[in-house]
Amino acid sequence: MTAVDARAVSPASAAPIDPRRAWQVVLQHIEADLLAGRLVPGDHLPAERTLASELGVGRSSVREALRVLEVLGLIRTQTGSGPQSGAIIVARPSGGMSSLMRLQVAAQGFDVRDVVKTRLVLEAAVVTELAEASGARVDGLDLGPAVELLDAMDADGRVSEAEFLALDAAFHLALAELSGNAVIASMMAGLRNSIESYVLAGVPNLPSWAETSGRLRHEHRSIVDAIETGDAELARGRVRAHITGYYTETNFISAPADPLTR
Amino acid sequence: MTAVDARAVSPASAAPIDPRRAWQVVLQHIEADLLAGRLVPGDHLPAERTLASELGVGRSSVREALRVLEVLGLIRTQTGSGPQSGAIIVARPSGGMSSLMRLQVAAQGFDVRDVVKTRLVLEAAVVTELAEASGARVDGLDLGPAVELLDAMDADGRVSEAEFLALDAAFHLALAELSGNAVIASMMAGLRNSIESYVLAGVPNLPSWAETSGRLRHEHRSIVDAIETGDAELARGRVRAHITGYYTETNFISAPADPLTR
Fold first, then answer.
1. Which CATH number is correct for A94-261, 2.20.28.160, 1.20.120.530, 3.40.50.620, 3.40.50.970?
2. Which ipTM did the prediction report?
3. pLDDT band with cut points at 50, 70 and 90 for residue B16
4. Mean per-residue pLDDT for B164-191?
5. pTM to 2 decimals?
6. Facing residue for B183 by CB, picked from A71, A99, A110
């Protein structure tokens, strides 16, 4: 465990901290420790009572800050006793991004159409990166983890609609992860999760699930083909048509006048 | 205020809630109200004690959930009494995105190079959208709010380095906001804030601030020109060169082998 040292973040000896803002003092303290490398992934945070007494705040303020860190994907908290209990630094951004995006879409901070447009931008960047990387290699790029998900989607009649859409989401995320950019991968996870319920709710609007799911499966394979042959422009066009097509078919976004369909 | 109604989120009458997870019950309850439109921006949340008794949790659990919502940019809390006190739904995503990105970069959940690459992807999308919109209009697009920031940066000798970089960040964000996509704008704000300290720390690495700032000012104007004339490809190329150039010059990212400079 990294020791919490005394710095200019309102230590117990200074003026009393406004209890309504005390949680921010705790958060700033932990952020400073992360920035300075005094805390790194895998480290345990000091116990609640230790942090509370060192920072001169109440234990409830420490708990408030820990909840924030947990939702942002910075720590994992475990109950019980022993060396594995308490809060551990994990730095898993995608969880935090998903919570943020989901709540903001729910609160109308984000328009679902802007979410879809942003998905298009990021996915186009992902397949471009992958196609260029594949084109630059003699043996092409190994898209194995993504292709395995496509194989699972081919199990006709044994995959429910919800399972199919979950595998679909996992395929797109696998491409993002293969491109090696954790920022884009976590943003994509957040975008997708924020509209997950809308995506599933759109299924009954489809004239035929068998037809749509067959088409989606074919489109996924064709995106992989374009990447493997190193054709970035083809891969971009295919991923755009794939995403826009599904949302249009489920009436999730209006088709004709929408700039997405340009 | 939207009334909190009784739903299947562990009301007080049900089995006792694990106190360590009680804050999640509160969060899920508020998320469900947001999704259903029972809570919308501008609404006050019920008082802490009301939420606590209706959900059968302690007030400290309610406070933990409120802190999470505050950091995610979902609510603003105000102290004091009267109609303006308490927590108000605001749905301001950029604040939450900035906290998330900043902490994840601090905790090494995100590599700063991935942050820069993602910035390039989003900024290229923004100027493409703006240039196409401008090209489609007889009178072009009004980039007034962005241009005003450039005028402020021209006040030679009266703008400090930190002020210049703050105006610079505001200019890029203004373009994102003018493109009308709140998701991209808030992601860009988050990306920029997460590397703000690195950007400022890079200034001493520059051979001449006067020369660099002069070049940056010129580049900003040339990006605006490309957008106004509706040349999306030129605007994309210029914004990429602009961003990559600065980071390369300050040794923030390594230049030659980096795919950014492709």
1. 1.20.120.530
2. 0.83
3. low
4. 93
5. 0.83
6. A110
